[in-house]
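Feature request, filed as a ticket because there's no other form

It would be nice if the structure record came with a short human-readable summary line next to the tokens. Right now we just get the raw output. Example of a typical job, pasted below so the devs can see what we mean:
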Amino acid sequence: MIAPILLGAMFGPRWVGVGALIAVVATLWLLLWLPRSAHAAFRAGRFDRAGRRYRVIASLAFTSSRERAATLSRAGCEVAAGRRERAEAILSQLDPGSLEVAERVVWLNNRACAILDAAGDATSALAFVDEAVVLRPDVPAVQHTRARALLAVGRIDDAIAVLDSMRAGGELSPRLEAERCKDLATAWETKGQAEYADDYRERARLVAR
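Raw output as currently delivered:
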């Protein structure tokens, strides 16, 4: 019979304390620093770096919800980097029917973005994001995706209305505000309003600086 041993009996109390400290530091790194650094990299447009960090978070996750969140974030990085096939491959790892509401909203939004970025079936993209809006109508990024889909299917006035309403809840991040202004420029140009379009292009340029 193999004799059972305890960490303290084998290495002494000092090493147990060191091991506990290492465990605490590693836990804080995983729970606090790594997610924050991944989010910061994404906001800065460093999508490959963010994706690598989300992959680490997913591989070390100690709950299924954290693993799903990291997986969805990885897919978002691939969408933002313009890699539709990789994004959809990641999203296919998740069953949308088994996701919680917030997770499903991200899944639907990312699917719609991947389709739109690849100039795919805009009607399908609109269906995905419409479902997301029903679940969470208060998320500006989801509203932005819906506006993009409306533009793609030719519903210009509806797209302008959505883009105009995005700031109702407060200020947007500079990146999202710049994208909103670019899409408004596209919409007004499509309607033959060159002055409006130029104005929004200038706003997008100033915000993005």
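Something like this underneath would help us a lot:
Residues 7-11 have pLDDT under 50 and may be disordered.
Residues 24 and 206 are 44 Å apart (CA to CA).
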